[in-house]
Amino acid sequence: MMTTIREARGVQALAYSFERAQEQGHCAFIPYIPLGYPTPADTLELIPALQAGGADIIELGVPFSDPVADGPTIQEASQVALRAGMTPATCLDLVAGLRQEGRVSVPLLLMGYYNPIHSYGMEEYVRDCAQAGVDGFIVPDLPPEEAGPLQEACQEKGMALVFLVAPTTQAERIATIADTTRGFLYVVSRLGITGTERSPETSLISRLDQIRPYAKTPIVVGFGISAPEQARGLAPYVDGVVVGSAIVRRATEGAGAVRDFVASFRPALAKETPSP
Question: Which member of 19, 56, 66, 70 is catalytic?
Answer without folding.
Answer: 70
